[in-house]
Structure formats: structure tokens, C-alpha cells
What does this fold into?
Amino acid sequence: MDINKFLGETEKENTPKPSKWDEVIVPKASYLLTGDVGTGKSAVAYFILERYGEKYGLTPAVVGLPKSKRTLLPDNFKFLDGIEAIASTENSIVFIDEADIQLPLDSNKDKEAVINFLSLPRQRKQIFILAYHFPRLVKGTYLPFFNAFLFKRPPYLLEFAAKKDSGEMKGMMIKAGERFDEMPSEDEVLKNTYVVAPRIRWQGLLQNDLPSFWSEDLSEIWSGVGVGSFQDADGKVTGYKVEGQEAQQLELSPEGLREKMKAQGLKDPYWHNVSELQDMCRERGLPTTGNKDALVLRLFRLN
It folds into this structure.
């Protein structure tokens, strides 16, 4: 036996193979993350922040996290109050949760500003992870600016998740849904992410480990945060907000928002029609584009 050949083969076998994740997640890129409620979007986002912050020497950062919840994350994390702070945070890997609210991509109204924002990673050695609960609010114009699409299990009714004219996004979600439907348990659903990575011409399932600091509290970041209302001089409710200075925006799905407001004894915002919601947005200086879900979510900002 050629001992040198044997040792060479053994060394090769014992050398860990590069993860497919390493090909997917690279510096100077943006990623769109989406999936149904409770399928592990936060878990995979924090897995990516921990793993690739260390791998590429980037500072992990989270946008809009309530101050009362920041102790859940390690000391090396940086906390940004809004997306406007991202531009000055170079050499970072940034998680923008509930990007439906923080960076709406449902129209071409602010196209130039949005494209400039999505181009920031290439200029400042950053990685963006943008989590959208409603990918139907992501206009197809912006899809080419994402390096890859990370899907947790999509909602059961895709018409509530994807625009009718967004064939690319809906097609990816259908394929992801088929793969998740094959899984034997919810545990398997939580442990896997369906990835579509056009830049490396690959798509398939990847297992995502939990970050070392994971706790269930991280999946319920907004639990316990009160909901208040905006009122005019006559006491009429014109909008809603998160109570407490630590929260910059309400990061909830419409369903979660309605439940929380119901528990607070507040009026269901869906009682307003689209025109009324648009008027409320105008009063607050907010965009009036998008469907009813987009308008409702957009109104829940702090002044």
C-alpha cells in the first residue's frame, strides 16, 4: 500500500465539504426571505447572521428591534432604529424583519430610492436579509436585485401571498410548497429552507441549524408590546401605533395585529375601507400605494 496515497485520501475524506449555504450567502448581496407565520423565518435569519457574520468578518445588525428585547441577542450585535441608519453601517450583515413595513416594494413610486438601497451591499461590503411576510407586496421590478430567495413553508392559500401577475415569485412558492408538503413532520419544516439561487443556477432544500443563542422568545419579539392609537383633536381614532419608546414600528402580520388590537379593546382597522386608509396615510405623510393589507401595515408607525 502506498502510505502517502492513503494519508492523502484520508485527509481529503476528513476535510469538511463546503456547505451549499457558503455558495448561496456571499458578501455584497441582498436576500429575500419569506414564509408563513411560525415556520422559522427568524431562526434562519439569525442562523445566517451568526454564521456569516463570523465567516466574513461582518458585524451582525438588526433593524427596529425593541430595546426591551435586545438582551436576547449576543453582545456583538448592533441595533439600528430604522433603515436610514443602514447606509452608515459598513461591513455588516443586516436583518430587516417585516420588511413589508420598513421597505415596501409594491410600486414604482420610489423606484430610484429603492434600487439605490438594494445596491448598498455592493458599495459597503454588506449583506442584507429582508424578511417579507407578504411577498405579493414585492414588485417583480426588484427581484433581480436579490442574490437568492429563501423560502420557509409558504401560506396555504398562495393567492394571499403572491400577486396574480407575479409569475416568478408564485412559481418559486409553488415549488417550495411542494417540497415542504413532502416532509413528514413540523420539525422537518422548521429545520429546512427552500432556496432559489439564480446567480449560481441552483435551487433546492438546505437544512438551517439554529443559532447558538436561539430562544423561543426570539420568534415572539413583539409579544407583550402594547398597541395604542393616533387620535385627532376630537378624539377620533385615525391610526394605530406601538406603545413604548423602544419600538419604532409595529412588526406584525395583519392577523397578529388584529388579535393584539382586539385584546387591547381597539377598533379593527379592517373596518375602514381603502379610501379611508389612504386618507389616513396622507395625513401621516405615508405612501398611499398598495392593497388594504399594505395600507393597514403602513399606518402602524410611530411618529
